[in-house]
Structure formats: structure tokens, C-alpha cells
Write a structure and sequence with these properties.
With 485 residues, the chain is an all-beta fold. The chain folds into two domains: 282 residues, Glycosyl hydrolase domain, family 43 (Tachylectin-2, Chain A, 5 Propeller), CATH 2.115.10; 181 residues, Jelly Rolls (Sandwich). Helices cover 0% and strands 51% of the residues. The protein is built from no helices and 39 strands. The strands form seven sheets. It has an eight-stranded antiparallel sheet, with no helix packed on it. Strands 26, 27, 29, 34, 35, 36, 37 and 39 form an eight-stranded antiparallel sheet that branches. β8 and β9 form a beta hairpin. It starts with a strand and ends with a strand.
């Protein structure tokens, strides 16, 4: 029985290449900055954070969380990574700007040069063939479009055609394209859903030429016993470990978790086993602890583009507010890191000396239906507080409600150590405070949900926001990710 690898972390839309002895995986990073995270592995089981492609995109008011604007559920989606003629290429579209971006570099850790590709291409797959470049993209109808020589837009008079069509699918038509040329044939891999219910299924279409007919069907409809939601949307990679298809699975509040499945080629098609042994991947540098002594570690990403004029790292992570907002979603400079399943917990000390009345500073299990524990200042002084949100609108709708205060109690002194535990076997988060009397739960255990308002898995997040007067400051010290210790 072969072994498939499972990554219990929100790493959606993986695209993978093998180059120079390593596998490189790029993932969707949505509204988090820096973006375009690249992971590296030598064996497909042990993965490490390697680099980011960009620090910022357009610096629009929405990307910067100015006023009440935001890009939740949008941002950078479904990147494609390729190595061609000595250059790494990364292509993706951004759903808030409705643009398509191409980044190029001769080193994955070096600065990337950017140009726009005219047009908006859903889930694009970049493809080089016989001196020409193409994008394969689309939802339901999958298109092939030839690019011009400088890769800035479609080639005038170039090849432009629909190569696969899943019209009439009531759930999800073809998308998430990945195209390759193997032994002279063109292989197109896509996700769609079963028509009678929502379930991820991987499809493959094949053609003898880019101008010929692509034919095929479903090749992988299996959840491997992990979770009954199907596994799909990804590409293939060949290396010293053999041939693998790297897809992902919808996995509740934890997010969309990659699954790496080995296969063999028979008669020009991938052949999978019915059953696999499942092993959890190992991680380095994808989440962890930080003392913020003089900066932050690379696994942290800001929720939306940061405003570093309001941030300082000096024996702690210091945030000052510059606007009034009603809830955590509009808090600038929220610092986040991915959670690691199936259970994880984190603690941090919050210094609220500089908070003003109506300010909140805390640690949260951060997504649309969040659980937040921290401190707030009112007329009586500093208080411990647990807040939560349960969204009541449509699955795409970001809640604009104030956080629900589940418990609030006065504390002595100006600082408080708080803790959040996440249990993704139940999709729940529980909050605690640490005092001289020990560790005590505050508020209720809160249900977490993956929703399309954020379109991301649950993260640990450090936030500070003002509801009455801007200019308050919070300091976060000695963050410990207890799962990684």
C-alpha cells in the first residue's frame, strides 16, 4: 500500500514544481501580506517556509483597510508557478483589482519583477510550449489563450479557444486548471463537483495538440478516508519520489488542506490505488513562537497590507491605532499565523498600559466566526474580555456586527496573559486568561466555521482596535505557539 501525505494546515490551491533537488509549492494567500508564499521540500513530507513573492500589490484603500474598505474573500487566488529559460514565473489573478499579475525572478528568494497581463484570468495555469506562452483558465468553460512575446497580454491573432466545458453543473463547473505536456501529449487537470451533491472531484482531459479536441473525464473521486468532501484541485509533479498529484480537501474551520497522492502512469493516464496509508507532513517555519525582540519571524503575515508607521518591534509587537472601527475585521496591522491541526494552542502577554477607553487588544482564533480574548479599557480601568462572532448573513457576507461580549471582568495591573485553544476535530475554540489564581476559561467554547466571507482557514491573530478614540497602543510580548514547542 502506497503512502499519501496530508498537510494539516490551510495551504489552498497548491501548484508545485521540482527544480534543483527540491519541490517548490506556491499557495493562495488571499488578503494576507506579504503574499504568494512558497514552501520547499526535498521529499514531499517535510516542508519549510521558503519565501514570499510580493510585499504588496496595488496598495488600494481596500487592501490597506482604510475607512471601512476591505478585500476579505478576495485578493490573490490560485497561483501558477513555472521555471522556464532560467527564470521562475508566478502568475495569479486578484479578485479585488480584477487584474492578472506576472512575477519573474532568477532566484526564489530574490526580488521579483512584476508586470500585468492585460485581462482577468480565473485560476490561470501558465504554460510554455515550442517557444510560445499560454494561459489556461476559466470557470465552467476552460479557455486556452496565447500570450504575446513580452507576456503582457493576449497575442493579437493568437490561439484563443475553449478546450473544456462543464456547463450545466449545478454545483461547480471546471476550474483550477493545471496543464502539462508529457510525452508529446497535452494533459489538462481540473476540479469540479459531482452534479448530484457538493463533492470535490479531479478531472483530466487530454489532446494530441493545442488545436485538437481535449477529451477525458473524472480520474480521482476519493476522500482517502480523511473527510467526506472529496480531494481535488491541483497539479502533478515528478521527482525523485516518483509521480504525485498534489490537491487539497475542504476541511472545515481549519481550511483547505493539501493531500499529496502518489500514482503511476498506465496507458497514458494516471492510475491511483483504492486505498493509501496516510502520513502527516512535518513543518519548519510555517508557524511558531516569537518574542518580537527586534522584528517578527517569516511565518507571520499581516491581515491586509500593513501600515508600518503604526507598528514597532522592540521587545514586543507594538500597535497604535489611527481610526475608529466597530470590530476586529477593520483593525489595521493585525498580525496572523496559520494554525496547525488537529489541535493547537497559543498564548501571549498583552500590555494594555497605552490603551484608551473603548480600545480592545487581544489574541483570537481569527476567521469570520472568531473567538477573541484580551483586554479592554473602560472608565473603570482595564478588563479581561472574551468576545465572539457568529455570522448570520450569507456565506459571502462579512459581518459588520460588534463582537458579542461573552464575559468581561476587571483585572489588576496593566498586563494579562491570554490563551486560545483550537480543536479542529470539533471546529471549536476556547479562550483562557492566566492570573495569580491559575488558568481559567473565559466566555464559552465557540463554534468556528469556514465561510467565504474570509475564504481562509482559522489563524491565530494579534489585534488592537479603537471604538471611541484613535491613538491607543497595545504591546504583545512572548508569543508562544504551544503546538510547535
Amino acid at each position: 500500500m502506497k503512502t499519501a501525505f496530508h498537510l494539516y494546515m490551510d495551504i489552498p490551491d497548491p501548484d508545485v514544481i521540482f527544480h534543483g533537488g527540491y519541490y517548490y509549492l506556491i499557495t493562495t494567500t488571499m488578503h494576507f501580506f506579504p503574499g504568494g508564499e512558497i514552501l520547499r521540500s526535498s521529499d514531499l513530507k517535510k516542508w519549510e517556509h521558503y519565501s514570499y513573492v510580493f510585499d504588496r500589490l496595488e496598495s488600494t484603500p481596500a487592501q490597506k483597510l482604510e475607512a471601512d474598505e476591505h478585500i476579505y474573500g478576495k485578493g490573490m487566488w490560485a497561483p501558477s508557478i513555472r521555471f522556464h529559460d532560467g527564470i521562475f514565473h508566478v502568475v495569479f489573478s486578484s479578485n479585488d483589482t480584477h487584474k492578472t499579475y506576472l512575477f519573474r525572478s532568477d532566484d526564489l528568494k530574490s526580488p521579483w519583477k512584476r508586470n500585468d497581463i492585460k485581462g482577468f484570468y480565473h485560476d490561470p495555469s501558465l504554460f510554455f510550449d515550442e517557444g510560445k506562452a499560454y494561459l489556461v483558465y476559466g470557470n465552467t468553460k476552460v479557455h486556452l489563450t496565447e500570450l504575446n512575446e513580452d507576456l503582457t497580454g493576449p497575442k493579437e491573432g493568437g490561439l484563443d479557444r475553449v478546450i473544456a466545458d462543464d456547463s450545466g453543473n449545478p454545483n461547480l463547473g471546471f476550474e483550477g486548471s493545471h496543464i502539462y505536456k508529457i510525452n508529446g501529449k497535452y494533459f489538462l487537470f481540473m476540479i469540479h463537483s459531482l452534479r448530484d451533491r457538493w463533492r470535490r472531484v479531479q478531472a483530466m482531459y487530454v489532446s494530441d495538440s493545442l488545436k485538437g479536441e481535449f477529451t477525458g473525464g473524472d480520474i480521482f473521486d476519493n476522500d482517502l478516508g480523511i473527510r467526506d468532501s472529496g480531494i481535488a484541485q491541483g497539479g502533478i509533479v515528478s521527482g525523485p519520489e516518483g509521480d504525485h498529484m498534489i490537491m487539497f480537501q475542504d476541511s472545515g474551520a481549519a481550511g483547505r488542506l493539501p493531500v499529496i497522492v502518489p500514482f503511476e502512469w498506465h496507458d497514458g493516464a494516471p492510475v491511483f490505488d483504492d486505498e493509501y496509508t496516510i502520513e502527516e507532513c512535518e513543518f519548519t517555519g510555517l508557524c511558531g513562537s516569537d518574542d518580537f525582540a527586534s522584528g517578527h519571524k517569516d511565518f507571520w503575515q499581516f491581515n491586509h497590507e500593513s501600515d508600518l508607521s503604526l507598528v514597532k518591534f522592540d521587545n514586543g509587537f507594538r500597535i497604535t491605532t489611527d481610526k475608529i472601527c466597530r470590530n476586529i475585521f477593520h483593525a489595521k496591522n493585525t498580525l496572523t499565523q496559520k494554525t496547525l491541526g488537529s489541535k493547537c494552542e497559543a498564548v501571549v502577554t498583552i500590555d494594555g498600559t497605552g490603551l484608551k477607553e473603548g480600545d480592545f487588544a487581544g489574541l483570537s482564533a481569527f476567521q469570520g466566526d472568531y473567538a477573541f480574548v484580551g483586554v479592554t479599557r473602560d472608565k473603570s480601568g482595564l478588563n479581561a474580555i472574551m468576545m465572539s462572532n457568529t455570522s448570520t448573513g450569507g456565506i459571502w457576507d462579512l459581518s459588520e456586527d460588534d463582537g458579542l461580549v461573552e464575559e468581561k471582568k476587571a483585572i489588576e495591573g496593566d498586563s494579562l496573559r491570554v490563551r486560545v485553544e483550537c480543536d479542529f476535530t470539533k471546529d471549536q475554540a476556547t479562550c483562557y486568561i492566566e492570573t495569580d489564581d491559575g488558568i481559567k476559561q473565559i466566555g464559552t467554547t465557540h463554534d468556528l466555521h469556514f465561510r467565504l466571507d474570509h475564504f481562509t482557514g482559522c489563524r491565530f491573530a494579534l489585534s488592537c482596535f479603537s471604538t471611541e478614540e484613535a491613538g491607543g497602543t497595545a504591546v504583545f510580548r512572548n508569543f508562544l505557539n504551544l503546538t510547535t514547542l
